[in-house]
Design brief:
The protein is α+β, with helices and mostly antiparallel strands and 154 residues long. The protein contains three helices and eight strands; from the N terminus they run H-E-E-H-E-H-E-E-E-E-E.
Length: 154
């Protein structure tokens, strides 16, 4: 089983466990390094994720994974919040953070640029609209986004 299949299976197993704790599963990362794996589980909660949330989720996720055993080798489990500068990966992420400032890197240039920082004005199923600091609006199709994350606002 490949790492992507393992990641998907893990998300299927732990999603309901995490939801039952009043926390939402944000994402799962799984990487294999030599003979060991690193499993990172990112959680979120409307009121913010606390250390207690991470500890509770870690215990319950560990128990669920011990029963199901989807990883055929040793791994380290880390549970944390995606952070203030969280990555934006899917349309639902952009929709959720409409009105917030994001940093977006594109695969190809738009108006001779591949790097943008602006407020997410809207997020549809195919593209986002950013309002740049100079009051210029730019539309970026999701397939042209290389990386995106929230910008920490001070």
């Amino acid at each position: 089983m490949g790492t992507e299949e393992i990641r998907t299976r893990i998300a299927e197993i732990i999603g309901p466990v995490i939801n039952s704790l009043g926390v939402e599963l944000d994402s799962v990362e799984f990487n294999r390094m030599g003979g060991r794996g690193l499993l990172r589980v990112f959680i979120e909660k409307e009121s913010g994720v606390t250390l207690d949330d991470c500890e509770r989720v870690s215990r319950e996720v560990e128990a669920a994974l011990d029963v199901e055993d989807p990883v055929p080798y040793a791994y380290v489990l880390e549970v944390s919040s995606p952070g203030l500068d969280r990555p934006l990966r899917q349309p639902k992420d952009f929709k959720k953070f409409t009105g917030k400032t994001a940093r977006v890197v594109t695969l190809g240039p738009i108006d001779n640029q591949t790097f943008f920082v602006g407020m997410i004005e809207s997020a549809g199923d195919r593209e986002i609209s950013l309002l740049l600091p100079n009051d210029k609006k730019i539309v970026i199709p999701y397939e042209n986004i290389s990386k995106a994350r929230l910008e920490v606002e001070i």
